[in-house]
Specification:
- Helix content is 16%, strand content 22%.
- By secondary structure, it is α+β, with helices and mostly antiparallel strands.
């Protein structure tokens, strides 16, 4: 479980503070199945889901009985749900999915940092 501190953030602005996203539209859900800390972030994956909406997708990704998760779910109305701090490894992308996204860019975006 992560604790969210009250932070002063300008209206309409989002900030990442201590691996948590802060902003007007951000809500926090707990995803307790992921516990592995990341030493650094080298890849960002953006992809769509087939859920009925952001809240249903976020609730599904946070369930302990599924093998998927995500750091953030963003809805069409700009509603944002953070399930994991950015320094915790999520379970949402395996190598098979990553290869698919690289070959089918219309399904998602993969941003890799050069190290």
């Amino acid at each position: 479980m992560f604790v969210v501190k009250e932070m002063e953030v300008k209206r309409g602005v989002m900030e990442i503070i201590e691996n948590l996203l802060f902003g007007d539209n951000v809500k926090y859900l707990q995803c307790s199945k992921c516990k592995v800390k990341l030493s650094r972030v080298d890849t960002i994956v953006l992809h769509s889901t087939v859920g009925a909406g952001a809240i249903s997708s976020a609730l599904y990704l946070g369930r302990p009985d599924t093998s998927v998760s995500a750091h953030v779910v963003v809805g069409r109305d700009a509603e944002v749900f953070q399930l994991l701090p950015f320094d915790v490894k999520a379970l949402h992308v395996g190598m098979k999915i990553l290869r698919l996204l690289l070959h089918y860019p219309h399904c998602g975006v993969v941003i890799r940092a050069k190290m």
